[in-house]
Design a protein that fits this description.
Elements (H helix, E strand, L loop, with lengths): L2 E2 L12 E5 L2 E8 L4 E6 L26 E10 L2 E5 L2 E6 L4 E12 L8 E3 L13 E3 L3 H10 L9 E6 L5 E16 L6 E10 L6
Antiparallel strand pairs: 1-4, 2-3, 3-4, 5-8, 6-7, 8-13, 9-10, 11-12, 12-13
């Protein structure tokens, strides 16, 4: 199959990659005309293949909503301590710091027929009609994300947005994944506890 995207110019999408439609991830290896993605594979990364009605928004940005049980930020600094005989040590502080972020929670193993959607801050390009929709991922999607997605400052970075359940945005961080762990939650057969650790740039308040 091919996907024709009416009234949407595909120039802002990568030459090869994925598009996301109502939570379904569809990979493509090339683009045809200005409104076409070709040589596609549907329902990748454990997303459900489903019919999409006309005028459904298409996005090229992966937006996940992690429902966190805990969120923690630790900041490591490395001041230099120089000892002197019979005198108090001198401390040299160069102002270097390294934020690390840890997020824990629980996710389903498989995607529901209609994946849960959370509204968040608008992230996407001018052709993206789905800028504020974030989808709650499955364990398989998070594992694939941790394995395949690489931070690239020159293109679209990985951003971690901290938001309350009421929609208040507290902070945004540019991050790279340092570690991801998934454990089968006790007493369940279809849910996983996750813990993800990120190295981060300084906090952005806007």
């Amino acid at each position: 199959d091919d996907i024709n995207v009416d009234n949407t110019n595909n120039a802002s999408f990568d030459a090869t990659g994925s598009v996301f439609i109502q939570g379904e991830e569809i990979s493509y290896t090339s683009k045809g005309s200005s409104t076409q993605f070709t040589t596609i594979v549907r329902g990748i990364n454990n997303t459900n293949i489903k019919a999409h009605s006309d005028d459904t928004n298409v996005t090229g940005i992966r937006r996940y909503a992690l429902k966190a049980d805990s969120f923690g930020v630790s900041i490591t600094k490395t001041p230099i301590q120089i000892p002197f005989p019979q005198n108090s040590p001198e401390i040299i502080e160069l102002g270097m710091f390294r934020p690390n972020i840890t997020v824990t929670g629980t996710v389903d193993r498989d995607q529901a027929d209609a994946p849960e959607v959370v509204t968040g801050p608008a992230k996407g390009n001018s052709s993206d009609g789905d800028k504020t929709n974030y989808y709650v991922p499955t364990q398989k999607q998070l594992e694939s994300f941790a394995t395949n997605v690489v931070y690239d400052d020159s293109s679209t970075p990985i951003q971690l947005v901290v938001q309350s359940s009421g929609g208040t945005v507290y902070a945004t961080y540019d991050v790279a994944i340092s570690q991801a762990r998934f454990d089968l939650a006790p007493g369940t057969e279809d849910r996983y506890s996750f813990s993800m650790t990120f190295v981060a740039k300084d906090r952005q308040d806007s």
